[in-house]
Design a protein that fits this description.
This protein is an alpha/beta fold. The chain has helices at about 20-35, 50-55, 65-80, 95-100, 105-110, 125-140, 180-185, 190-195, 205-230, 250-260, 270-360, and strands at about 5-10, 40, 60, 85, 115-120, 145-150, 170-175.
């Protein structure tokens, strides 16, 4: 690409529970870390939404009517010198891209040095593959970047954690996370940009290191995408030296003091303490496993209920369509019956009433 551009990230999927909000959060906070302006737009209608996690940066948008559509698409064009991030929900997916196609939105954006990038979260469902193919045909001139979200789509192949600087990005990889870290980032109070600068309270050194690797891997991919798009304002915070905060924490300092400040020989009391810590750790792991199993059961029940309600909704919609068809049919029959009655009335008047009236003797 030539020239300097401002990116417009459209994060989308026709499926639910695939992580569009998570990807939108990461994109938005990539710019927040560097204190750069960013405009995020929330088209989701199921919580927690992007605006719940980032109320200071995300604007709730509604494209259900003409006024809302004009407000959103005009702002996407006129927002100056700020990358745009759009979290397109499953329910808004079809309407958003239909409007974008009808008004040639992406073409107009490129004319204003705004480069749209459709970040499509790939999924194993046939619906996802079909929607992706339709978008590629409809928006042939627009950049597409598949997103491989390992967290929500565990059936996908695992991704490599090594960054690929200097190469055109072929996908955005969201690696797997353990249960405890996933629970942490799903809290509405959690911020990736704050985590980048400080250690959250109560997070162990090992988990802190894992989450730092995870966030760094994703942020480096976004920076590579910026370079590929030829963005005018590149990240200065993500550099080879001093890429992130040091991992040394007060917890580490306490461990070092205990190790280097006295006798290395273990006595019976320290051994008992280690055994107690080990038992406590096992108990915590068992509780976490139980919570994970319970969460999976709840998720499966929720999916079953959602599928059943979806089936009932489709049956109701089919019945409504059938009734509407019947209404149209009976309206047409009523109109034809009225025409026949009018014709019969005219014939009665012409054949019976008019001759009879003419044959009556005048008084």
């Amino acid at each position: 690409m030539t020239g300097k551009t401002t990116p417009l990230y459209v994060v989308c999927s026709p499926c639910r529970c695939v992580g569009t909000t998570l990807v939108s959060r990461l994109l938005t906070e990539f710019y927040v870390v560097d204190d750069r302006p960013v405009a995020a737009f929330d088209l989701a209608d199921e919580g927690p939404q992007l605006s719940d996690y980032l109320p200071e940066f995300a604007t709730i948008a509604n494209i259900g009517d003409i006024r809302g559509q004009m407000a959103l698409f005009d702002r996407l064009i006129t927002e100056e010198n700020a990358p745009r991030v759009i979290d397109v929900s499953r329910r808004a997916f079809k309407k958003f891209f239909t409007i974008a196609h009808e008004i040639s939105f992406f073409e107009e954006a490129r004319g204003r040095s705004i480069e749209p990038v459709i970040l499509f979260i790939i999924d194993s469902s046939p619906e996802s593959a079909k929607a992706y193919a339709i978008l590629r045909r409809r928006f042939m001139e627009t950049s597409f970047l598949p997103v491989r979200n390992q967290i929500e789509a565990s059936s996908l192949a695992h991704c490599d954690l090594s960054p690929h600087e200097g190469k055109p990005p072929t996908s955005l990889d969201i690696p797997l996370l353990g249960f405890s870290l996933r629970a942490l980032i799903e809290r509405q109070s959690f911020s990736f940009s704050q985590f980048w600068r400080t250690v959250p309270a109560g997070l162990s050194d090992a988990l802190d290191a894992k989450l730092q690797d995870w966030v760094e891997h994703i942020f480096l991919q976004i920076r590579d995408l910026e370079l590929f798009l030829g963005c005018e304002d590149l990240s200065t915070y993500l550099t080879a030296q001093g890429l992130r905060r040091p991992r040394t924490t007060p917890r580490q300092g306490q461990r070092d003091t205990r190790r280097f400040g006295g006798d290395y020989r273990r006595n019976a009391g320290s051994a008992a303490m280690d055994h107690s810590d080990d038992q406590t750790g096992k108990a915590i792991l068992a509780m976490l496993q139980k919570a994970a199993d319970q969460s999976n059961d709840d998720c499966n029940r929720a999916r079953t209920m959602a599928n059943e309600r979806s089936r009932r909704l489709r049956a109701t919609e089919d019945r409504i369509n059938q009734l509407e068809t019947e209404i149209v049919h009976f309206r047409e029959r009523t109109a034809r019956a009225e025409k026949w009655l009018q014709l019969i009335q005219r014939e009665i008047e012409e054949i019976l009433i008019a001759p009879t009236a003419a044959a009556r003797p005048t008084q």
